[in-house]
Amino acid sequence: MIDPISFLVLLVVAIGLSQVIGPRNRFTRLFWISAPGVLLLFITHQRALGLAIVSLLVSAGIYVVGRTISSRRARARLPYAILLLLFLPDLTHLAQDAPILFLGSAFFIVRQMMTVARALKTQAAPSTFVPALVIATFFVAAVPSGPVFNGLTAWEDLGACNPPDNGQGLYRLFEGFVYLFALGGLAGSAVATIHLASDTASGLAPMLLRGVLLPVAAFAVLFTTFYGYSRMAEGTALLFGFSVPQNFDRPHLATDLSDYWKRWHRSMADFVMQYIYLPLLVTTRRSKVALVAAFAFMGLWHNPSPPFIVWGVGHGLGLGILLPWARRRNLPPLAIRVGSLALVVGLSSVAHGAWR
């Protein structure tokens, strides 16, 4: 995991230097948001940088091939080949000693796929596609985590030369740091305390501590970390005059599982709905099958391992079967809400090994 303080210092230095060196046109902004990303990958793990470069070249090659294909359907399907790169770290055993290969590559590979798909659909020129792909791969604030976004949209925003939104940008940048460093640290301390207390407790206390409190505390670590990195990415983008999707919208207020996925990791959920679920729905004409398959893909996207497959299939079954069943039974809204959040926390505990 990238040290939060070092990450913040890198972002602040990049933002500061961009303010005082060179004219603030779209190409200088491109340099200051992507060059530090290359540096960050080089420092944290050189093989992660190698994977980023390889996937960038593969994405560029697919774009070149796609421009020669006359069939619109074939051209639309071709970018999906980029998603096969998600499994490269695991197949080559690169990820065993390099967690960032999963933490970072899963995000920039999806961003590359979205950028190539949009470029082929709109017939974007190479002069537009290349810098868009660079942003999708190396935007420094999005290297450790999300959000996922279309590089072409970011490049178009930079072309408008919008002034930086310093107020919102700085607020989100430092709010993210507080969540990542302070609140994430408290949540991590809570996990350690619960482990220690459960080892010394007797009776039903260990079951309560490990079965209930530990999953909640572990989920708090996940949320504060993920939310923190996402807000720092949002703030950094605003300070450079463009925007990326807002990844979270108070997921703890979700009324059911469907509402939860409109609030949690929204950029990835939108990607899965648009690029995975809807094509599967058109092909199978069975919404439940499409939902389970789409979320199974999301589990594989996180990590091609049995716990994450269970996590993905569990969410798909929850959305496709459990939630409709609860609504048909007219269960109380509070019961649906509590049950949905309990399912989310439970599946997260399975995926991340909170009970191990």
Key terms:
356 residues; globular; mainly alpha
Task: Describe this protein's structure.
The model has no long low-confidence stretch (mean pLDDT 90). Helix 2 (26-44) crosses helix 3 (46-66), helix 3 (46-66) runs antiparallel to helix 8 and helix 8 crosses helix 9. It is built from 16 helices and no strands. By secondary structure, it is an all-alpha fold. The chain has helices at residues 4-20, 26-44, 46-66, 72-77, 88-91, 100-103, 105-122, 126-138, 151-159, 166-200, 205-239, 257-260, 266-284, 287-302, 306-328, 333-352. The chain is globular and about 65 Å long.
> What is the count of DSSP helices, taking H or I runs of 4+ residues?
16
Number of strands: 0
Strand content: under 5%
Structural class: mainly alpha
Question: From N to C, what is the helix and strand string?
Answer: HHHHHHHHHHHHHHHH
Overall form:
globular
Biggest sheet, open or closed, and with what strands and sense?
A: none
The overall average pLDDT, rounded, is: 90
N- to C-terminal distance: 20 Å
Helical proportion? over 70%
Oligomeric nature of the chains: single chain
Low-confidence stretches: none
Cα radius of gyration in angstroms: 21 Å
